[in-house]
Amino acid sequence: MAPKSEANRPTLEAVAARAGVSKSSVSRVINGASTVAPSIREVVLRAVRELGYVPHAAARHLATRRTDAVALVVSDPPKGLVSDDPMFSAVVRQASRKLEAAGKQVVLMLAGSEESRARVSQYVAAGHVDGVMLVSMHGADSLPATLARKGLPVVSLGRTNPAVPHAENDNPGGAALAVHHLLGQGRRRIATITGPLDMIASQERLTAYTDVMRDTGHRSIVALGDFTRVSGADAMRQLLQDDPRLDAVFAANDLMAIGALRTLRESGRRVPDDVAVIGFDDIEAARYTSPALTTIHSPMTDWATATVDLLLGLFDGGPDAPVLLPANLVVRESA
After folding, report:
1. Backbone φ and ψ of 160, nearest 5°
2. 39 CB neighbour count, 10 Å cutoff
3. Most buried of 164, 215, 254, 330 (most Cβ within 10 A)?
4. Of 168, 133, 156, 173, whose CA–CA distance to 302 is shortest?
5. Phi and psi at residue 156, in whole multiples of 5°?
6. Which pLDDT belongs to residue 9?
7. Taking a C-beta distance cutoff of 8 angstroms, is the pair 111, 75 a contact?
8. Using N-to-C axis directions, what is the helix angle for 254-266 and 229-242, rounded to 10°?
């Protein structure tokens, strides 16, 4: 059937007449107002279905001052952490699906440079979106605070600025689980490979590691990484040079743990016989390493869903309390 012309489209007046209610009642139902009685909502929606009424998007946006669009802003640093890390692709995919299911148009924006951050800020300030979801923000990044001052709902996947509501994984709890597991296996010279220390998740995982090592009377052995495979391999190589008797390593994400496994294999160390390895995130590749990687399960789809739910709740005046998701140890062959 050919689409109806503008002249033949059912009007708001026609829906009101069919439902036996006022135009203002129809408008409130169409625009999602929560003050409409269920009985009125039911008859209006029935009339909408029977007539095939489709709200005029431009008029609806003028009436509600909503665009039904959300900016999904990803900080992609020069090394391409976000684009290379399957965790982030899973997060972006799930967040997009969830937002689209809620009737929101997703505008994906990269904010990896000063110029791109300025463009994001200008785009949001111009009223093109109803809200913003931030992904992979670094602690020194001014964008979260800048966007929070725009007066629109802004949420973050992970903790960034105190002014921005967030959902996050239990980074300290997960890291502590990993270190206690290694200690429980009799490991004593346990090192860690950190993520970028300008990211709060990296800071929390490192702090939890050092706290457990100190509280159990063991020395901390720290190497710096940046959440990439290459940095994990390089850090593991440096750790072995500094302490050849190392018997375990906790890497702050799975990609670095996978890099560490390669270095250990090249150096002739057996995993887990000589050196046990634990990662963090539980990406799909962790199941297929050799040996399979013991890791902290970080529920990516749940994390993305919780962040989107937080944003959708803010649209309706809901709470901005942070959401904390539990971390669980997944024991495989590497530790």
Report:
1. -130, -95
2. 8
3. 254
4. 168
5. -130, 140
6. 72
7. yes
8. 50
- Angle, CA 93 vertex, CA 91 and CA 94 arms, to 5°: 65
Strands 166-169 and 154-157: parallel
Q: What six digits make up the tokens of 114?
A: 């000063």
CA-to-CA distance for 282 and 297, rounded, in angstroms? 5
Find how far residue 57's CA is from the centre of its chain. Answer: 30
For the chain (335 residues), the mean pLDDT of every run of 10, in chain order, is: 56 88 83 77 88 65 68 70 67 89 88 85 88 78 81 87 87 97 97 92 96 97 95 97 96 97 97 97 93 93 91 88 93 97
Nearest to 91 by CA among 251, 239, 201: 201
pTM: 0.76
Helices (H), 20-56: 23-30, 38-51
Residue 227 is encoded by which pair of tokens? 């959440």
Q: Which helix (H) or strand (E) holds 328?
A: strand 328-330
Cross-strand pairs, 297: 281, 328
Q: Quote the CA–CA distance of 282 and 262 in Å, as a whole number.
A: 18
Number of Cα atoms under 13 Å in the Cβ half of residue 155: 28
Q: Are strands 166-169 and 323-325 parallel, antiparallel or unpaired?
A: parallel
Q: H/E element holding 281?
A: strand 276-281
Please, what's the b/e burial string for 80-101 (b: 16 or more CB within 10 A of its CB; e: otherwise)? ebbeebebbebbbebbbebbee
- Residue 263 tokens, joined: 């270095």
Q: What is the pLDDT of residue 319?
A: 84
| Structure confidence at residue 178 (pLDDT) | 98
CA pair distance 309, 82, nearest whole angstrom: 22
Dihedral angle computed from the Cα positions of residues 235, 240, 246 and 249, in that order, rounded to the nearest 10 degrees: 20
